[in-house]
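User: Sequence in, structure out. Go.
Assistant: Echoing your sequence, followed by the structure tokens.
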Amino acid sequence: MTRDTRETAGEGYLLDNRQAEAGERFTALSELFDPSTFRHFDTVGVGDGWRCWEVGAGGPTVPAWLTERVGPAGHVVATDINTSWMRKEAGFEVLRHDVAADAPPPGGPFDLIHARLVLVHVADRDKALRSMVEALRPGGWLVLEDGDPALQPLICPDECGAEQELANRLRSGFRELLRQRGADLSYGRKLPRLLREAGLVDVEADAYFPISSPACTVLEKATVHQVRDRLVAAGLATDEEVDRHLANVAAGGLDLAISPMISAWGRRPAA
């Protein structure tokens, strides 16, 4: 899900959660990645009475799942710098919060802290990671999930024609805009090491790489609509190229992929 970021270097978060397309992106990201995320929650044993912090929640699906799992004895707080996509009556606490600038929210220490597609975009990601680790109770779990576009940079891995070449060229422009805003496009692969360096134990990781899902198509259309003005302004694409790509996507002939999502989890040592 799109995440907890502040404006960086006067440019702002590229995929602004205030835009109408953000809701479409949240829905597509949930369809693509929620099953994998929930599998990792099962792996670490999320259960009755747990206190959980969902960082940069964006939409409601992950904190809602956690709320049901922890039951009345537990507590879930969902934070983001823009909370407009979450209903405050959803059964979990909703707070406006910047993980890289603000102290951890009340309700800790936490049994589980989770962030998906957050730190890759945060300028001071080292500080954000330290803040999350410090907010864990002894024995608590941190689950981080971030993409690694540098590991697999193509939106059309099967570049078999002009339509696929155009899609990959526009995706290259999108990555350039992300880099200009301080995103670390190889951050996902670093997660296991960073968790160990932060003092966590029992660290494991895996990766998920969806290809040719209807949700990939929805995500691509919403993303391109959100960034087209910046692509054109930066000279990375023309309006005609963007329109042609959107028409190609709508025609349904492209096998669109998502960058590998690397998930890593580790436990704060017991006191």
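User: And one key feature?
Assistant: The beta strands are 51-55, 75-80, 93-96, 110-116, 136-147, 201-208, 261-267.
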